Amino acid sequence: MRPGHRYGLHRVVEPEGTMPQPAWKLDNSMELYDNEILIDVETLNIDSASFVQIREAEGGDPVKVGEHMQNIVASRGKHHNPVTGSGGMLIGTVRQIGQQLAGKIDLQVGDRIATLVSLSLTPLTIEEIVKMDVKTGQVDIKGQAILFESGLYAKLPDDVPDRISLAVLDVCGAPAQTAKLVQEGDTVVILGAGGKSGTMVLYQARKSAGPTGKIIAIEYGEQGCAAIEKLGWADVVLNLDCTRPVDVLEAVERETEGRFADLTVNCVNIPGTEMASILATRDEGTVYFFSMATSFTAAALGAEGVGKDVNMIIGNGYTKGHADLSLELVRESAALRQLFETKYGL
Amino acid sequence: MRPGHRYGLHRVVEPEGTMPQPAWKLDNSMELYDNEILIDVETLNIDSASFVQIREAEGGDPVKVGEHMQNIVASRGKHHNPVTGSGGMLIGTVRQIGQQLAGKIDLQVGDRIATLVSLSLTPLTIEEIVKMDVKTGQVDIKGQAILFESGLYAKLPDDVPDRISLAVLDVCGAPAQTAKLVQEGDTVVILGAGGKSGTMVLYQARKSAGPTGKIIAIEYGEQGCAAIEKLGWADVVLNLDCTRPVDVLEAVERETEGRFADLTVNCVNIPGTEMASILATRDEGTVYFFSMATSFTAAALGAEGVGKDVNMIIGNGYTKGHADLSLELVRESAALRQLFETKYGL
Ligand SMILES: NC(=O)c1ccc[n+]([C@@H]2O[C@H](COP(=O)([O-])OP(=O)(O)OC[C@H]3O[C@@H](n4cnc5c(N)ncnc54)[C@H](OP(=O)(O)O)[C@@H]3O)[C@@H](O)[C@H]2O)c1
Ligand SMILES: NC(=O)c1ccc[n+]([C@@H]2O[C@H](COP(=O)([O-])OP(=O)(O)OC[C@H]3O[C@@H](n4cnc5c(N)ncnc54)[C@H](OP(=O)(O)O)[C@@H]3O)[C@@H](O)[C@H]2O)c1
């Protein structure tokens, strides 16, 4: 076997000298380097911002969405949406382990795992699209993927259905960061609170802020809001379009009596919601941008533009213990689990 | 006078419902609303990431660069570079103050001010390009601009030359944030340490980290590095291309004996330096992205991709006291002032 670089640099085709994530193109030949893991892929979970973009570009036609995905992989060697810049993750079965890793890691051939690194840096082939779920962005395929030595993964648990593990692990950075950021008594605003990451953040925020905290959930659409109301974790549920910042500003101002949020978590899957996040937050408060549709410049210049001294955090998909924490939440809360079961028709 | 909205919403032409910064197009008619300030513009300081992009697109030709700028303003009503998303700022003289503001703010007609909000949200007209400095991105024009009620500004000081105030105030968020983030004894890595924001961050980092701190300055090119060496504020100066993350990783690993940076500040003006910033930083350390060429997804997914649990901050251009702090630095340090004088040929 050929020796590989810890970070997968040996797979970068262009531009030369970059890392696999920012690279335009990766070598996705499935011949293994000595520190790689080869995976037979079962299901891709396309990042929500990416999937929405593809679905809209193809008018929701499942066949065309599949072709669109195959074209991305054919041209880049990875499922790295050139418009949104984001990826997603996958589950599959370990087929082969490079000789430099075998015996040194807690994986065996045959183990079923979820990758915890983005598809935007994962060498991938798609032989065939087996099942396309245009509602959820979970796509069963025949294909293979490569995990680098530095790549994180989680073994799939026995007690949680695969589709739920896949969905939960895709967004597991969000509740884990929420647990770090929320203090007892905090006022927390969650944008896109009815989505996958949004509901997990909502549950965790309620836990961390405790009964003296105030949790404001914002979601667009009556159905989504009704579902959040039913969970009972939010003190206030607001039906608002987060691309309309002034609506959000006014509602949060009213609900907090002008104090605004200590922490705002953005879990929306469409562009143009930076200003709503900033305006919902108090001076010297924190905005946690988990959404991959966030524009760096819109956030930086938007905050400056309204003279708002807020701390703005880029949602790193990784933080220690994130996978375990999020699976624990689904085990702990029957309501949370049921919500995911309904989403994935289980 | 027509009544205006505090945040300038009345100037948004499209898309409807957005704020002036993310808006595609603003109304730049120079007829004042009652809470606006009209400015006769003297000089624009185009954001470095934006100016580099325009200059390269026009092969460095000053006339074409000027036309390019005028086209941006003609189509958007503001100098909001559609490629980089960034703006810059301006200096000029107050010509008129809306009746709702007059007497309530510390400005008089005739005062000379710098705007502290981005050009990407400032209604602007350019009648004529008077002088184009393709080296620095400072452009003297005949034209006018509007400041909203919520817009920040600073009166130009008498004891600092205008061009220096303009340059310093454009990047004043960076040293102010550095002062907040650096603790005594910290190891700080600065990328693009020879630029305008870079040198100010370098000076402030040295001050805040004290003699027990370790400051590592990274800049590309021998000349720039020699200039930094001469200042004497960095413990180590490295001549490296920050678009090559592994080079940066290895050098910082060596210089810190494997401990890496507590804080990394990115002050580079070109794309593709997210990974270098992340890899230079220790686990649970902080990356402060001041660069407007930062890609949100490249940062978020890049950190996850290498399993790096770092805190990543979006460089908010505003923080309390930022203008005063940065002007004070230039007053305090003759070397810093001289550096800016040389840059602007004073
Ligand atoms: N940082 C990371 O590592 C990471 C990892 C994974 C995902 N993400 C990002 O996190 C975000 C959320 O992901 P997810 O999987 O939780 O997505 P999701 O399940 O699709 O949830 C998105 C939510 O936002 C709501 N929404 C859409 N437009 C809205 C609007 N205008 N105003 C208010 N709410 C609106 C959606 O409502 P409807 O369903 O009614 O449209 C939905 O409830 C995405 O941008 C994704 O890219 C980041
Ligand atoms: N967040 C905010 O509010 C805000 C406000 C203003 C500016 N900014 C951003 O901050 C950044 C810096 O602005 P500035 O005005 O300080 O810019 P600047 O004076 O042009 O400095 C940029 C520095 O980066 C160096 N550099 C270029 N390519 C490099 C590479 N490959 N490796 C290492 N160093 C490299 C440059 O060296 P050479 O000169 O030799 O090319 C220069 O010293 C820009 O991206 C700008 O858009 C942000």
Automatic annotation (TrEMBL), chains A, B:
L-erythro-3,5-diaminohexanoate dehydrogenase N-terminal domain segment(s): 10-157
Record InterPro entries: GroES-like_sf (IPR011032), KDD_N (IPR058932), NAD(P)-bd_dom_sf (IPR036291)
Entry keyword annotation includes Oxidoreductase: yes
Family matches, as SUPFAM superfamilies: GroES-like, NAD(P)-binding Rossmann-fold domains
Protein keywords: NADP, Oxidoreductase
Protein biosynthesis recorded as keyword: no
Pfam families: KDD_N
PANTHER family, sorted: QUINONE OXIDOREDUCTASE PIG3-RELATED (PTHR48106)
Protein name: L-erythro-3,5-diaminohexanoate dehydrogenase
The species this protein was found in: Tumebacillus lipolyticus
